[in-house]
Structures are given as structure tokens and as C-alpha cells.
Amino acid sequence: MPTNKPTPNNTRLDRVVAQARRDAEQREQGYRERALKMYPWICGRCAREFTRANLHELTVHHRNHDHDYNPPDGSNWELLCVYCHDNEHSRYIDHISGSMSSADDTTHPAATSSPFAGLKALLKK
Length: 125
Ligand SMILES: [Zn+2]
Ligand SMILES: [Zn+2]
Fold this sequence. Notes:
Blueprint: H1 8-38, E1 58-62, E2 77-81, H2 82-89, H3 96-99, H4 117-124
Antiparallel strand pairs: 1-2
């Protein structure tokens, strides 16, 4: 069986993945802006306050961990700093891939290259 055959499906898949990621980012921008208008810029866990200067460290958390559930009254949103948000999500394995784009890249250099690193650690327990 030849193993070095070109796989055109891969590039198509790449494009689909890229498109899905763009869609997710756009959707995220939408609810993030709405949540920031609706709520004070304070982390819901550690009560840290935010200004325009460090607003990128304040993220929108979905209370039911479903990024597609965005009721207009904001009842599924909670503003959390990246640290508390990370904490919140470390307990929810199925949410790891969805949280990648919302977290600040610079704070999670290893996370993108190994999305299942945390899963492995959990399985060891
Ligand atoms: Zn916090
Ligand atoms: Zn979240």
C-alpha cells in the first residue's frame, strides 16, 4: 500500500477548519462585545478590575460551557480574567478546544500545540 500519496482531502479539510475557526472568532467577537457592554469590567471570581489597557485579559465565560448558547439577556455569560477562566475550564475537558481562541495566546504557549496534554494528566489520576 503506498503511503506517500498526496491527500487532497487534507487541504480541503484545512480550509473547512480555517473557516470554522474564523466563524467561531467572529461569533466570539460578537458576544464578547455585548457582554462587555452589559457587565462591569470585573472578574466574577477574583474581583479584579479591568480597564481598556488590560481588557484583553478579561474573557467571556459561558456558564453552561456551550459557546453556541448566547441568549440576548446575557444570562449565560460571565466575565472572568484569563486565570480564573483557565481554572474554571480545567474541570471541563470537552471544552478545551473551544477555549483556545478566547484565551490570550501569550499566556498559553503550549496549549495550542498539545490540546490533550491536560487530558493525559487527568487520566493519570
Ligand atoms: Zn479572576
Ligand atoms: Zn468559558
